Amino acid sequence: MKPMMASKLSKLPLGMKAALLGIVLMLAIAPSQPVPVHAQQQPVVATWMWNTFSIWTDRANTLDALQRNGITLLFLQIDTDIPADIYRSFLAEAAQRGIEVHALDGAPDWVLPRSSAKLYQFIDWVKTFNARALPAEQFRGIHLDVEPHVLPEWYADQDAVIGLLMDTISGFVEEVKSDSALITGASLPVWLDAFNVRDGYGGRTTLSDRLIRQLDQTTLMAYRNSTENILTSVSKELDEAEKAGKPVIVGVETLNNYEPDTSFYDKGRAELNAALSTVVAASAGKASFAGYAVHEFSSWLTLRD
Question: What one-character DSSP code corresponds to residue 299?
Fold first, then answer.
C-alpha cells in the first residue's frame, strides 16, 4: 500500500472546439468498434517513485538506477515543496534516457466530497507546470492512485463508496482531457471485477471494465508473489481491456507489507525477475498487455539478490 498524502475547468479555445466537433462527426459515421491496442515491440517497464526528494538530492544516481533497471515509464509522486526547476531538469534528462514520466498522486479520501478538491488541485498543478515548461521538460501523463477500500466508509456503505470511486475517475478523466493531451492512468486493485455496476450506457458491467474503458492506461496492482496467482488475478481485466482497446500494465509488489503471499520482499530479485519474465511471455499474446510495473522503486532496489 502507498503512504497517505495530500497533494478548474478551463474553457476550450474556439479552434479546439471545432477540432473536437470534427472528431465527433467522424466517430458518428465510423463503425462502433474499440480502438485496437497496438502491440509494443518491447513491454513497458514501469515503477512508482514515492521518494520524490531523490530527484533533488541525488538526481544523477536516481536516473542511473532507473536506467540500469530498464525503466521506460516512471510514476513520479508530486511534492509541491520541490522547486519547479528541479522537476524540469529531471524530466528533461529522463526524456534523454528514454524514460517517460507521469505525475503521480492520490489518497484514499480523494473520493470523498470533503477531499475531492485535492484531485483537481493536483491536475491544475500538473497543467500549470507543463504550460511553463519546454516540451522535453513536461509530464506526459497523470497517474492517479486512490484506494478507497482502506477507508472506514468502505465498510459502512460499500455501494456508496464505489459510486464515489466511479465519479472520481470520471471527473479525473474529464478534467485532464478538457484542455490537454495528457495520458490518464490509474492504479487499480485486481478484484474490482467482482463488483457489478452501471456501465454508463444503460446496462451493467464489472467495475474494472467501466474504469478501464474510461482511462487511457490502467496499472493493475496484481500483488501476488507467484506467477500463477499474478496471471490468474489479471486474466479477466486483460480480456476486458482487449475488448475495449485499452492497454494494461501488470504491477507487482516488493514492499514488506506484512500481508502473506502478496510481495516479493522476502523472495528476492532472482525470483522477482523470473516471475516477471514468465508473466511477459505468458501475456505476449494479449493485445492489451503493455508491460509490467514494480512497486515501489526504493524497495525494488534493496531486494536481496
Answer: H
